[in-house]
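Bench log, entry 3. Co-assembly request; chain sequences pasted below exactly as received.
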Amino acid sequence: MKTIESMGNAVLSSLEQTGRTLLLLLIVVYRIVQPPYQFYAIVRQIYFIGARSLSVIIISGVTIGMVLGLQFYNTLERFGSVDILGSAVALSVLRELGPVMTALMVVGRAGSAICAELGIMRISEQVDALECMAINPDKYLVAPKVIAGLISVPLLTCIFSVVAIFGGYFVGVVLFGVSEGSYINGMIDAVVWSDVRLGLVKSFIFGLLVTLICCAKGFYIHLSKSGSLGAEGVSYVTTDAVVISSIAVLFSDFLIGAIL
Amino acid sequence: MESSPAIAVRDLVVEYGSRRILKSINLDIPLGQISVIMGGSGAGKSTLLRTMLGLKKPTSGEIRVLGTNICSAGARQLEEMRKQMGVAFQGGALFTSMTVGENIQLPLRQHTRLDENTIQIMTRIKLDMVNMMPHEHLMPSELSGGMTKRAALARAIIMDPKLLFFDEPSAGLDPITSAELDELIIKLKESMNMTIVVVTHELESVFKIADRIAILGEGELLMVGTPEEIKASEDPRIVGLLNRTPRQVAVDVDDHLRRLAGKAVEPGIPDEAASPDEPGVPGESASAKTADGESANGKSGNKGAAEGQ
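Structure output for the full assembly:
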């Protein structure tokens, strides 16, 4: 009986959190169109989520591109098809790995920081202070982060994809001697606009999901089931935000892939 | 004709879950005066403050702040009302990513279209009022407790509010800094004709700054009056608070021992251990301890054990 009760509670809690997050999205969309516009706050957040994630994205992009080049080369060599190495790397990166890996990197680097920042602001009465100053905290704190996520994640995905393709090029062409022409031309022939579009659509959706979930987790820390508003509470919601965002990215990747 | 109060609280009840924190509070905060809300820990001061600020929805009752009923006001009305008030929080609540100056300028930048020069001048005027001029470019993490409170006060008054709330101005401060803040609060009232609401339990500070004092005790409003009226009160709860008398908690020996053993009984449920001629009154007449410490049922051994805890 207790097991059923705790399962029921977990389901209700998840539904409550999902509803709260979706409501936050609606509030943010409503507030974005109202003046005063938070232009500088958005630029600051693009710098934080986007520019400051650049090194992580470039390093992970090159590494994943090299791993892909190595694995595909070993497999394709058995069938005598190393000429399609470029197209295999490019399609994998543009359609799947680029958006997913970028989103996961943003979750780890910026998402956790966003969640912790908002959580600490809530427990140290900074959010209350904003409300008392007649400054809407949804608009001032959450909206710029969500907009910045929508702009930064697709841009980071583009950078990730480009450096990953060059990583594959380095392993295939420079290390294993695959013809440069077959790598580049195979890629140009195989990749069509719908592949790029799919990657971009995914990255927009991931950008929204990651920033929204992390913002909601930190912003509503006082309503969390952990019951603690101190350092432990912040650590709890931050872990939660990272786990839920990562699962949301992977699950929605499958859904988008199946639909589009 | 008497002017309407800055804040009018009517039949206010606030509950957290099943716990009733404020029990039907009726209170008027007059315009242009310093009103102090005081009481012991857990008396409901902070809850009353949060409810008056519109940060906590009451269970029932009504609060009118500067004529706006904040319990039924829409978001826009609440926003307009809040532009006329300033709040200095207990911990300062300064934004840690901004300098002191940027913190103070935030309301101006969000609500006005003043040019940069005017914003800078207004910031320096307010910083000067709270003796923080040299610290404009410091980050909140570089400030002492007293400086944080003064910076929070400067931010609270940057829009020249009609109503200022100050939560625990003296908490955690040394006596000199605390006295300086008291002087500052009085100066603000006199120079800007503000209505100021201070929530505190620091007695020295209360009698120095207050025009009117409201005393809360266990969620009830015990008394409202001038400092002289409060000092003259014969209510034992107020006398106890003013004289810093430790609370005497009557201990039910049997119930206390049961709690220690993890077998506390719900009130009103018959005690299995009670004698048949005393049904259903655990912790009441059968085993209640009298004021002088005698156990009514004469279990002297238990009494001694409980006092030793």
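DSSP finds nine helices and no strands in chain A. The longest helix of chain A spans residues 85-123.
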